[in-house]
Structures are given as structure tokens and as C-alpha cells.
Description:
The complex is a heterotrimer. By secondary structure, chain A is mostly helical. Chain A has helices spanning 3-26, 30-52, 72-103, 108-116. In chain A, helix 1 (3-26) packs antiparallel against helix 2 (30-52). By secondary structure, chain B is mostly helical. Chain B has 2 domains: 1-80; 123-182, no CATH class. In chain B, 74% of the residues lie in helices and 0% in strands. In chain B, helix 1 (2-22) packs antiparallel against helix 2, helix 5 crosses helix 6 and helix 6 packs across helix 7. In chain B, 38% of the residues are buried. By secondary structure, chain C is mainly α. Chain C has one domain (5-134). In chain C, 76% of the residues lie in helices and 0% in strands. Chain C has 5 helices and no strands. The chains are: A mainly alpha, B mainly alpha, C mainly alpha. Chains in contact: A-B, A-C, B-C.
Amino acid sequence: MSAFPGLYNYWIVIFLMMTGFYIVIARGNLIKKIVGLNIFQTSVFLLYISMGKVSGGTAPIVATPGAIYSNPLPHVLILTAIVVGIATTSVGLALVVRIKEAYGTIEEDEILLQDSKP
Amino acid sequence: MIEILDMLLLALMAVLAVAIARLRNLFAVVMLASLFSLLSAAMFLVLDAVDVSFTEAAVGAGASTVILLGTLLLTERQEKPPARFSPWPFIVVVATGATLVYGTLDMPHYGDPAAPIHQHVAPRYIDKSPAEIGVPNMVTSVLASYRGYDTLGETTVIFTAGLGLLLLIGQSLRFRDKEETP
Amino acid sequence: MNDNIILRITAKIFIPFILLFAFYVQFHGDFGPGGGFQAGVIFAAAFVLYALIFGTEKARKIAPPNVVQFCAALGVLIYAGTGVVSLLLEGNFLDYNVFQHDPVQGQHLGILLVELGVGTTVAAVMISVFFCFAGRGRS
């Protein structure tokens, strides 16, 4: 079908997103969940940057006048998102360290078990 | 040629993501996550996003790996095997993925210059940026000048994350124990 | 024979170049890929390399934690301060055209200052994040 080469990028990105989503909801280890969240974030970035590409274009740095440039607006958005992503990841990992010190484990079901005991 | 590279990189990333989901040794998971970030930086380069590729390589493959390894040192190295297999996450994930793929059928094809994203604000920035700002790198001109307010908010977010981290794990344990025993 | 000697000598050779590259990326963000964020992370990477090879105690002497925390706040202050200065010069908030007589030169100056603020904050936060994680263990 003619949609395949034109939409292949988006379908693989959706597969990556769903893998990250699966890791977040199906695995109990907190560090693995955060890695899954990272995979999800990165695939969202790929989606936006894929949408911004213009075929036959080049990087949005003005070199020769009249050339075709890829859209710089998604690049700016994703630049911000990457740095905010690492900020939230580091806060999440600090919380995991504190949870380990408080509960002695980082598996979700063991934490819930300790919490449910009076 | 570039399309083959595109497809190959994305296929490699898909394989890596599945491997990360299946592995239980956390050290291997962190290393594969770093490799995933590196491949995504290469993918950004193929998609003409040089600034984003630079940032992803520095931040994702560099700083994020260091922080994850630091966390591994302070917590555990191995994931517990799952107790029993439940099909519900898999069903939810497949249903969401199918809905998203159905949503992409309406999208403009990859690389289409007539897509709506290229029609409104972006041509104005590309046309006027050399004359109004005079900086060759258009991503910097949009980031620092046209959308400078958002970048101020982002810098504040990074600062707040640093503050949060200092509050959570700022003191070393030895120092805290010495303080608490009177 | 101390088997860390290769690592120590290599680190001593590399760290100045890493710092120099960070400054290059910071100030050439106008002409090529780069800018404040990338430069901040690369700058912090030099300090992380030093801490990994020579130990966190020596790294804390070079980058004392209160100085690093001060620099993190200083970056945000530089950025917001640029906006306030443009308000005082009868422009809008973060309107760089009023900095110089020629608007394009004003934009250049504004972008330079703003990226400097961003780079300082990102570098300081990345260094303090590393020191938080490295210094937490019971040693």
C-alpha cells in the first residue's frame, strides 16, 4: 500500500511508545518503570521531529539563501522537552533512592504489602 | 539511501525497546537505555534536527546514564521475576496502539512540504529571522528570542528540579545520622 | 604499580579540552548547533569525569556545593534580569531590540546574555545532581 513508506516512521514510533507504556504498567520494579517512561518520552520526541521534516530540506541553519529548511519550531519544542525530561527523571530517581531507604525494597508489590500492614 | 538508514535505525530501536522490556538485570537495562538514547540521537540527525541530536546525545546518552547508574549503586541490581502473568497490560497496550495507528491514517505523509505544520508560523520565522535577528542558527533565534519566555520557564523548571533533588537526597547518610543522635 | 595511572593522566589531558569545548558550544550556538543547554551538560561532564577519576572529596574542593548552588540561582537571575533590564529601558519584557541602537545588535546581545544564563543554570544543576547521587552512600 502506498501509505507504508510514508507512515512507516509513525508506526514504529507508536510501537516504541507502546513498549514504553507496557514497561510502565506491567513491570513492578521502580527503576525499570522510569526507564520505560524514558523510552516513551523519546518516542514522543521522534514523533514530533518526524512531523517537522521536509523532504529535500536541510538543517535549519541559514547557509545559502533560498534553500529549503526543515521546520525549526518542533526542534525548539523538543529541545525544551528533553531537558525537562531529564529534570523529572532525576527527581523520580531521587524518590526511588528515598523509597529504598525507607522500605528496603524497590519492587512495587512489596512496598504495597508493607504499606497495607498496620 | 537516507530512507534505508531511517528504516534501519528505527528497526534497531524497536528491537532494543523489546530487549529492555524483557531483561531483568538492571545494569544491562541501563546500558541498553543509553544505547537507545544514542540511536535516537542518530535518528534525530537523519531527520535534520542537529540541535536536538546534540542535546539528546549529551543529555540522554550522557547525563541520564550517569544518574541511572548512581541510582543503581544506591538501590538494587536485579529485578524480581514477575509473580504471575496477567494479560491485561498487554491487552490495554495493543488496544491503545491500534487506536493510535488508526489515528495516523489521516496524517500527512512523512516529509510532505504541504503539511499543515509548515503553513502558519514556521514560514514567517524562516523568512524573517535573518532580517530581524540576524543569527544564522534559526533554532537559537526561535528558542532565545521569538519564544524566549518559554525558555525562561524551562530554566526555572531545571532550577526547581535541582532544588527538589537537594531537598530529597542532598545530605549524605553519614552526616544525617551524626546529626540525629544527640 | 598504580593501575589507575593511565586513567589519571588521560583525564588530566582531556578535562581542559572538554571545558574548552563547552565554552565553544556555548558561544557558537548562534552559528551552528549548540547553545546553553548542550554547553551546560558538557561543562558538567568535565566535573563528573574529574570526580569519577580523582574521588568526590577532591571534586568537592574544586566545586564547593554552596558555590554550585549559588551558580544555579545566578543563571535564572541573569535570564530574568535581562528581561527586567529591557523593561527598564522602555521595551517589553525580554524585548532585546532596546538594548542597542541597532535592533539586530540588540538581539545578538540579548541572545548572548540569555544563553549564558541558561548554560550556567544547567551546568550547576547537573553538577549538583551528580554530587547528590554520589555523596549519598554510607561510606
